[in-house]
Design goal:
The protein has 89 residues and is mostly helical. The chain has three helices and no strands.
Length: 89
Amino acid sequence: MDDCKPLAGGSGLSTGAAGGGGGVGDEAVALLLDSVPRELLARAALRCGAPARALLFFEAVSHINNACRVISKVTLITSSMTLATTTSS
């Protein structure tokens, strides 16, 4: 059963004495793990029988997609307002 405990450092690596000391190699591994798309992690979690972890990753993907849509809408509104102001002057 998946209890969905947060991963140390957000990348799945242990820190401190139990994690191997936090050397340069650990940073490279952390960068590699952080580069894995969240949707891929969610699908892998589902296949491994960890639905809570899968939901966590799917929510992260959804949040990012929603943020991108909001930014696009704000940019569109701002640019149209600027265009309307310059054409009416």
